[in-house]
């Protein structure tokens, strides 16, 4: 008897749904658009619009599935699982209804609060106190809900056993020490380093990500400062759009450890809310969601939700995973040595490691949860935008013509090098002010050389980034619009001295990855992935090796010309 997983992604522009069977086949799919509320630096969305879009998408998907598959019945849906945008503030009242619109990850209103948080943490470090705002509340004050539930879960890392949704009600300790801010042995004397710098360093060490105003914890501080009446009504805060859908589906307030790594309040190494960090700014930890692994069953569809949408009441609902974690899972990255390179407008290199990357510029770290370890994503600003810019400048915006030009130039672009930093850079160097350059021009330089040099420049930069990782690659996959340029794929294979894989069916793999968690089939993505492998060309690899020292010298030289 065929079983199905109902998968959804609640993104910024749309809610997408796909019904996936046990073989990884997409039986039906649907999507519904979303509106973005923009006001200056503010970026918000209506959580109830997420729910309405989810409802309509689910209804359409179930209808189409019944038409497409005569074996389909709703009681054969083994589970519902979602991915979604992360780093949001979704504030709910006692009835799990929004007290205001959701503040999104891209919202920039809380920079002042982030600086204040850094100073609070830094002052506590300098004094050796718990925090600058007073005593840290006890475990029972901060962690227990009124019914005795542990918001950090039962096993010291995650709630539940991963499959049946059970929860141990026993007492567990929280992570008060990491952000209760005691100075390390190597800390400088008080006053030597500004308190905000000390606080930022301590935050990074605890949370695994840089302290910025876009994080939910500073945004909660902003709400308390600027909307006190609204803040007084808050009883629950969710971090991912998918978790609001789960709240409406199953009546529970949960979060997965990957998405909640972006909250600014979770100790990334233990996967638990940090009592000292929340207490330092006076945020009651009981409003934060219960933490789970993505594959945990966290509840089931309520009768009311079943009547509204069409799922069978009692259908298991899974914790799911934040969108960056889902993308990592879909790209075949699940253990150290596996790398995924995204060539979107900007890009990232993602891998999984045993430790957060707190020493790499701009790195974002997530507790994975699917397996032990951490998703490490290092973003670079210049990727597909360089391709688009060079295509517009040298090929009149015609990508087919650009492809032919790139192929007509030799590897190494006849000695032309491009530093591709059109809009500054975050990795492998962090310098928002630096700008790009071409060097090695001669009377023989052609438009084809310039175009090829631009793509090679991005590839050189990616090579620099890859060399900063501790584990050599065992596999490299490419995603994003840039992966459609086959010449760029060949350049990267030669540049990195490693085969690179491109997914022809990349659009369905995130849904299949979610379904793999429902079916407990870690091999499902690999089983259905339609890949093209680009092998490194030895002659091109030799040419790039010869040019690489020159490229590495470019940034230090250009940076001095400001």
Number of strands: 25
Note poorly predicted spans. Answer: 126-150, 154-191
The CATH class of the largest domain is identified as Alpha Beta
The mean pLDDT is 88
> What is the strand arrangement across the widest sheet?
19-20-18-17-23-24-25
Provide the domain count.
Answer: 2
Percentage of residues in strands = 15-25%
Share of helical residues: 25-40%
CATH fold-level assignment of the largest domain:
Nucleotidyltransferase, domain 5
- Compute the CA-based radius of gyration: 24 Å
What's the architecture of the largest domain in CATH terms?
2-Layer Sandwich
Biggest pleated-sheet summary = 7 strands, mixed
Which structural class do you get from the secondary structure elements? alpha+beta
Characterize the overall form: globular
Distance between the termini: 67 Å
How would you name the CATH homologous superfamily of the largest domain?
A: ATPase, nucleotide binding domain
DSSP helical segment count: 18
Organism: Bifidobacterium ramosum
Keywords: Carbohydrate metabolism, Kinase, Transferase, Xylose metabolism
Pfam families: FGGY_C (PF02782), FGGY_N (PF00370)
InterPro entries: ATPase_NBD, Carb_kinase_FGGY, Carb_kinase_FGGY_CS, FGGY_C, FGGY_Carb_Kinase, FGGY_N
Which properties best describe this structure?
562 residues; alpha+beta; Nucleotidyltransferase, domain 5; 7-stranded mixed beta sheet; 5-stranded mixed beta sheet; 25 strands; 19% strand; transferase; Gluconate kinase; carbohydrate metabolism
């Amino acid at each position: 008897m065929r079983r199905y997983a109902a998968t959804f992604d609640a993104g910024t522009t749309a809610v997408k749904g796909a019904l996936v069977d046990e073989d990884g086949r997409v039986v039906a799919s649907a999507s519904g658009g979303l509106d973005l509320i923009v006001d200056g630096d503010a970026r918000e969305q209506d959580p109830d619009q997420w729910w309405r879009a989810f409802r309509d998408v689910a209804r359409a998907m179930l209808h189409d599935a019944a038409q497409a598959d005569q074996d389909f019945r709703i009681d054969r849906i083994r589970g519902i699982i979602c991915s979604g945008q992360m780093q949001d503030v979704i504030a709910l009242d006692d009835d799990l209804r929004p007290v205001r619109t959701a503040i999104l990850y891209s919202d920039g209103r809380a920079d002042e609060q982030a600086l204040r948080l850094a100073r609070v943490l830094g002052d506590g470090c300098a004094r050796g106190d718990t925090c600058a705002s007073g005593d840290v509340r006890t475990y029972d004050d901060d962690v227990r809900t009124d019914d005795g539930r542990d918001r950090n879960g039962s096993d010291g890392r995650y709630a539940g056993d991963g499959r049946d949704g059970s929860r141990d009600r026993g007492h567990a300790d929280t992570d008060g020490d990491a952000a209760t801010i005691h100075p390390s042995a190597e800390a400088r004397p008080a006053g030597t380093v500004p308190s905000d710098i000390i606080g930022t360093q301590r935050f990074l060490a605890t949370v695994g990500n840089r302290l910025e105003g876009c994080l939910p914890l500073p945004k909660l501080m902003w709400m308390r400062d600027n909307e006190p009446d609204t803040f007084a009504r808050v009883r629950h805060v969710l971090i991912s759009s998918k978790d609001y859908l789960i709240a409406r589906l199953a009546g529970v307030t949960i979060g997965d450890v990957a998405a909640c790594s972006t909250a600014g309040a979770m100790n990334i190494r233990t996967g638990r809310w940090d009592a000292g960090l929340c207490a330092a700014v006076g945020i009651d930890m009981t409003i934060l969601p219960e933490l789970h692994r993505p594959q945990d069953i966290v509840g089931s569809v309520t009768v009311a939700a079943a009547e509204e949408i069409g799922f069978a009441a009692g259908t298991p609902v899974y914790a799911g995973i934040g969108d960056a974690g889902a993308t990592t899972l879909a790209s075949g990255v699940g253990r150290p040595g596996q790398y995924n390179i995204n060539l979107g407008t900007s890009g990232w290199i993602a891998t999984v490691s045993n430790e957060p990357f707190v020493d790499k510029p701009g790195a974002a770290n997530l507790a994975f949860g699917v397996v032990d370890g951490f998703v490490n994503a290092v973003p670079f600003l210049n990727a597909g935008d360089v391709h688009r810019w060079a295509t517009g400048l040298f090929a009149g915006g015609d990508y087919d013509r650009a492809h032919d030009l790139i192929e007509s130039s030799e590897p190494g672009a006849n000695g032309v090098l491009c530093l591709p930093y059109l809009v500054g850079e975050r990795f492998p160097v962090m310098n928002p002010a630096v700008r790009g350059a071409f060097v090695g021009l001669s009377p023989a330089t052609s438009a084809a050389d310039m175009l090829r040099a631009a793509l090679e420049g991005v590839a050189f930069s990616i090579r620099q980034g890859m060399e900063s990782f501790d584990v050599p690659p065992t596999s490299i996959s490419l995603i994003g619009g840039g992966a459609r340029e086959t010449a760029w794929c060949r350049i990267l294979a030669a540049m990195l001295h490693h085969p690179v894989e491109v997914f022809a069916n990349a659009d369905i793999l995130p849904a299949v990855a979610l379904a793999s968690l429902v079916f407990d089939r870690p091999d499902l993505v690999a089983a259905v992935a339609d890949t093209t492998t680009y092998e490194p060309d030895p002659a091109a690899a030799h040419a790039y090796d010869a040019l690489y020292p020159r490229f590495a010298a470019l940034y230090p030289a250009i940076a001095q010309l400001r």
